[in-house]
Amino acid sequence: MTFLLETPPADRHSLNEDVQGLIVGTLLVALSVQFLQASHLITGQIAGLSLLGAYWGGWSFGAVFFVLNLPFYGIAMWRMGLRFTLKTFAAVGTLTAWTFILPKAFTIGTIHPAAAAVLAGVTAGAGLLALFRHGATLGGVGIVAVWLQDTRGIKAGWVQLGFDACVFTLALMLFPLPVVGWSLLGAVVTNIVIVTNHRRDRYIAR
């Protein structure tokens, strides 16, 4: 006698699984911010603009990041639906909380910019993959990137890297070339991780 066990669709998760995915994903991205800040590097996307604002104006990264993401929720609702928008909003809020909590829990000492860039790129890439897999992003360009990959087949990593090029061009007005160069390395690592592993034929963010 054969017993068949019903399994859930591959692109669906339980509430507990989604909560776990959002917590782990945002924690990894928050850790990447720690690596960047420890070596005074920057990143791309809206997070990159947020770090520029934090360095330039002396504001909190978490606060700037949260505010800059607000206009993109309309795009998320319009193109991706309520479920995706709520998850993204929760992810952004959770990341904001982590960026306040982690610096109080530990600090990263001396670290070479190259090591910081690679470690930040890997942790950010892994964190974003976890969020994508659970139907969320960290807002901003990520919303547009996931939508383009899911509907047009354009790799999300390449979309984000294109925007990153604009962020780093702006960064050249505020930071020395070596800082921008090492930061670009981190962004390239992040987006290569996403291009390689975020596959529309394997799953679609929902």
Automatic annotation (TrEMBL):
Compartment list: Cell membrane
Pfam families: YitT_membrane
Keywords of the record: Cell membrane, Membrane, Transmembrane, Transmembrane helix
InterPro entries: UPF0750_membrane, YitT
GO cellular component: plasma membrane
TM segment ranges: 21-42, 54-72, 179-196
Record membrane topology: Multi-pass membrane protein
Main location: membrane
Protein name in UniProt: BCR, YitT family
Annotated organism of origin: Shimia thalassica
